[in-house]
Amino acid sequence: MSPMATSLPVNLNGRTQTHTLSSHPQMARHPSRSPESKVRITVKNRRKRYLDTHSEYFSSSSLELADPLAYDRLVRRFQTKSEREAEGRQKGYSGVLEADLWRSEAKIDALANPDHAALMRYRRDASGEIVAEEKDEVPTNKEEGMQRWRKEMELRFLRGDDTDFDYKTVDESEEYDDRGIEEREEEEKWFEDESPAWVGEGESGTSNADKAITGQTGVQDY
Q1: Is residue 66 predicted with pLDDT exceeding 70?
Q2: Alpha carbons 176 and 168: distance in angstroms, whole number
Q3: Separation CA 46–CA 175 (nearest Å)
């Protein structure tokens, strides 16, 4: 970015002349981050980096239990019969029973304690079965549903809400640092630490513009 020009009026022996000075980009200072803020940003970046390099996290069969109702409406509803059978074999008999139990309990809880901000609302139909009432924002296809599910689970992971995950293995590991981000932050810190200065200022602190002013009368000699 090119320096911005600033015009300053200078009075010399009753004559006013205008001299243009360039403002240095370093004059725009950014507030320094607190140590606590830096730690939070580092941790969040490392968790995001972990997910970017471990996509298998989202395919874990146990992840369904994190939010059985969301999984039911975002993923399970779009699965084919063969896909559900394959998922059942991966979970095992006990895993399938556990998921069904969690889903049923979650529906009962949602029916008894409706959350208007939740993805789904539930009611009992004529047969007494608990069924979902869809909202407009509920995905209508498999791809959209999976994207929504991954986003929900990503935000959950970044918040630190996965109680089964050992976050220390990520939060305290430099392996998941993004070197590009670190370099940019170091560059910003360098500019923040630099003293503001005018472009063209010499070692003595006198600017080239000041030197040009010295000795001038404003009268041209011919």
Answers
A1: yes
A2: 12
A3: 8
- pTM for this predicted structure: 0.59
Cα 133 to Cα 106, 114, 118, 130, 143: the distances in Å are: 15, 12, 11, 10, 21
In whole angstroms, give the CA distance from residue 103 to residue 109. Answer: 10
Q: What gap in Å lies between CA 69 and CA 24, rounded to an integer?
A: 56
Contact 152, 139 (CB under 8 A): no
How far apart are alpha carbons 82 and 39 in whole angstroms? 46
Q: Which residue has the tokens 């991954």?
A: 150
In one-letter notation, the amino acid at residue 19 is H
The full set of domain ranges for the chain reads: 60-164
Q: CA-based angle 132:135:139, to the nearest 5?
A: 95
pLDDT tens, residue by residue, 131-165: 766 666 678 899 999 999 999 999 999 999 999 99
Comparing CA positions, the residue from 71, 70, 59, 57 lying closest to residue 164 is 57
158 in Cβ contact with 149 (< 8 Å): no
Both tokens assigned to 178:
């993004």
Q: Checking DSSP bridges between strand 130-133 and strand 4-12, what pairing results, if any?
A: unpaired
- Strand intervals (E) in the chain: 4-12, 15-23, 121-124, 130-133
Please list, in sequence order, all residues whose beta carbon lies within 8 angstroms of the beta carbon of residue 9, skipping any fewer than 6 positions away.
16, 17, 18
